[in-house]
Q: What sequence folds into this?
C-alpha cells in the first residue's frame, strides 16, 4: 500500500482532485455565500443608529435636491370668468435648492428601534441655475415676477360654504368681505414666490372669526411653506427589522392622519425617499411618504438601468395609483371620486386642490382638452421615477413631478363664479418638480466603501478559483504523463524479464544436452 501511494501519478491525481474540490468550494462561496455575507456587512452600516454612515447622512443629507417650479399664467381671465376655456402660458422654470437638517434627535432607551426627531427644511433660490443661458432681458426673478392665476382663497371659501350648506347670511357675509377688498373674485395676481411658498390672505384673515377652521395662509405644498418644523416625527431605525429601515411611524405629531376617509388611508408609512432597506428585490414595491400630498406613494420596479455609472433598479409610479375610486376602490379613502389621474387634497387644504402629473399624464383625456397652452404629454419626461442601488437601498437619482390644479365651477351665490359652467373644470396653477441624487463626493464615497471593496473581494476569490483550476490542470497533465511513463517502464521491465527467461531457458536446454 505504501509503495502504491508513492507512485507519482497517484500523488498528482490526488492533488488535482483536491484542487478541483477547493475550486468548487470557492465557487460556491463566491456565488452563494459571499453575497449574503456582503449583505450582512451592508446592513450593519445602513441602520439608523449612531456611528453608521446612514445615520450621518440622515442627520444632514448631502444629496443635492432641487425643487423646480413652473407656474401657469392665465392670459384670458375675463373670458374665463365668462365661461370660456382658459388659456395659460408657462413661466419658469425657477430652481430652488432644498436643505434638510434633523434636530433634537432622541433614541428612546425603551424603544431603540425608533428615532424621534424634528426637522428643519428650507429653500434657497438658485439664480445661476434658473437663468443659465438667458439674456439680461429675460432673466427670471421669483420675488419680482408676477402672474395671474385662480384666487385660491376665494374659491376655497366658496367651496367650503357650498359643501357645508352654509346659511345665506354666512355666504352674504363672506361675499361682503371679499367685495370690501376690491379685488377680482375668480383670479388674483401674485409673485411666483408668494404662490409657491405661501402668503397671508386678507380675505381669510377677515373671515377668521366666522370660519375658524380655515387657515389664514394660502400654501400650495406643505413642505415648501415651512422653514422650521417643530412637531415631532418618528422613524424606524431598522435595528429590529432591517426591512423597516427609515419607515415613518409618526409624522408631525400624527400617529394617524385626520384628513382621509378610512383607517388605511390615514395610516402613515413609507420612507422620506432618500434611502430604502438594503437587499431590494424586483418583486417588492417601495413606499415613500410624500408630505406634500399628505399620504404615501407607491413605486413599482420598472427595469434595471445604469444611472451615474451604477447598476440600479428604476422604479415608477404605477398607473393604478391615481385612478379614481370606481376603477381603484383603494382610492376611495382618499376621496378620489372625480376624474382619473387626480389626487384630491380638498380635505387636507380646505380648498379644491387636485394634484396630477404634468399635462394630466395618465388622466382622462378631456382634462388636457379643457385647457389651452399646456405642453403635449410626454410619458417619459413627465413621469415620476427613482433610481435605487439595490444592495444598499441608497437613492441614486430621483425625478418627481406634480401639477397643482384647482377645481372651479359655477356658484350662483358668489360673484365672479356665476357665469362659469356648471361642470367642473380643472385649472393648472403650477408644476413642481423635485430632482436630486448623489453628488460627485457621495458617488466617490460610495465607490470607495461599497463598489471597490466588493469588486476586489470578488475578483480575488475568482482569481483563487482560477489558480486552483490551473494547478488542477497542471497536476492532471503531469499525472497522465507520469502514468504513461510508468506504463512504459513496466513494459520495459517485462521485456527485460522475458529476455532473462529466454536466456535461462536456453541455458537449461544446453545443460540438458551436455548431460
A:
Amino acid at each position: 500500500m505504501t509503495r502504491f501511494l508513492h507512485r507519482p501519478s497517484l500523488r498528482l491525481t490526488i492533488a488535482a482532485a483536491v484542487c478541483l474540490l477547493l475550486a468548487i468550494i470557492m465557487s460556491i462561496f463566491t456565488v452563494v455565500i459571499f453575497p449574503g455575507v456582503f449583505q450582512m456587512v451592508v446592513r450593519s452600516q445602513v441602520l439608523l443608529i449612531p456611528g453608521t454612515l446612514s445615520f450621518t447622512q440622515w442627520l444632514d443629507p448631502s444629496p443635492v435636491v432641487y425643487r423646480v417650479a413652473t407656474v401657469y399664467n392665465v392670459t384670458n381671465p375675463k373670458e374665463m370668468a365668462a365661461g370660456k376655456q382658459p388659456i395659460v402660458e408657462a413661466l419658469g422654470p425657477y430652481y430652488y435648492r432644498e436643505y434638510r437638517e434633523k434636530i433634537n434627535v432622541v433614541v428612546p432607551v425603551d424603544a431603540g428601534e425608533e428615532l424621534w426627531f424634528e426637522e428643519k427644511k428650507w429653500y434657497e433660490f438658485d439664480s445661476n441655475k434658473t437663468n443659465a443661458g438667458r439674456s439680461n432681458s429675460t432673466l427670471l426673478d421669483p420675488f419680482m415676477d408676477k402672474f395671474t392665476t385662480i384666487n385660491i382663497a376665494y374659491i376655497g371659501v366658496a367651496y367650503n360654504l357650498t359643501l357645508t350648506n352654509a346659511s345665506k347670511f354666512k355666504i352674504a357675509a363672506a361675499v361682503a368681505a371679499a367685495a370690501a377688498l376690491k379685488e377680482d373674485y375668480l383670479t388674483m395676481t401674485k409673485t411666483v414666490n408668494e404662490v409657491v411658498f405661501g402668503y397671508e390672505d386678507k380675505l381669510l384673515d377677515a373671515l377668521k372669526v366666522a370660519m375658524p377652521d380655515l387657515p389664514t395662509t394660502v400654501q400650495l405644498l406643505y413642505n415648501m411653506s415651512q422653514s422650521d418644523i417643530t412637531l415631532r416625527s418618528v422613524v424606524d431605525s431598522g435595528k429590529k427589522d432591517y426591512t423597516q429601515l427609515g419607515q415613518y411611524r409618526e409624522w408631525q405629531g400624527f400617529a394617524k392622519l385626520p384628513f382621509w376617509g378610512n383607517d388605511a388611508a390615514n395610516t402613515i408609512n413609507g420612507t422620506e425617499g432618500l434611502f430604502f432597506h438594503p437587499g431590494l428585490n424586483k418583486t417588492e414595491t417601495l413606499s415613500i411618504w410624500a408630505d406634500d400630498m399628505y399620504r404615501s406613494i407607491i413605486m413599482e420596479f420598472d427595469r434595471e438601468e445604469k444611472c451615474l455609472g451604477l447598476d440600479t433598479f428604476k422604479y415608477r409610479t404605477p398607473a393604478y395609483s391615481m385612478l379614481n375610486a370606481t376603477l381603484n376602490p383603494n382610492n376611495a379613502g382618499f376621496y378620489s371620486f372625480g376624474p382619473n389621474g387626480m389626487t384630491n387634497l380638498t380635505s387636507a387644504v380646505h380648498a379644491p386642490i387636485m394634484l396630477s402629473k404634468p399635462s394630466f399624464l395618465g388622466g382622462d383625456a378631456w382634462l388636457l382638452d379643457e385647457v389651452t397652452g399646456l405642453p403635449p404629454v410626454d410619458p417619459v419626461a413627465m413621469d415620476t421615477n427613482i433610481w435605487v442601488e439595490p444592495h444598499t437601498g441608497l437613492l441614486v437619482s430621483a425625478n418627481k413631478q406634480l401639477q397643482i390644479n384647482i377645481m372651479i365651477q359655477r356658484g350662483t351665490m358668489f360673484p365672479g363664479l356665476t357665469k362659469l359652467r356648471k361642470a367642473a373644470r380643472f385649472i393648472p396653477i403650477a408644476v413642481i418638480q423635485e430632482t436630486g441624487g448623489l453628488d460627485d463626493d457621495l458617488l466617490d464615497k460610495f465607490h470607495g466603501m461599497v463598489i471597490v471593496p466588493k469588486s476586489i473581494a470578488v475578483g480575488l476569490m475568482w482569481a483563487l478559483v482560477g489558480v486552483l483550476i490551473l494547478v488542477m490542470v497542471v497536476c492532471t497533465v503531469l499525472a497522465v504523463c507520469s502514468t504513461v511513463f510508468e506504463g512504459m517502464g513496466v513494459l520495459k521491465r517485462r521485456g527485460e524479464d522475458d529476455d532473462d527467461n529466454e536466456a535461462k531457458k536456453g541455458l537449461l536446454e544446453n545443460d540438458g544436452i551436455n548431460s
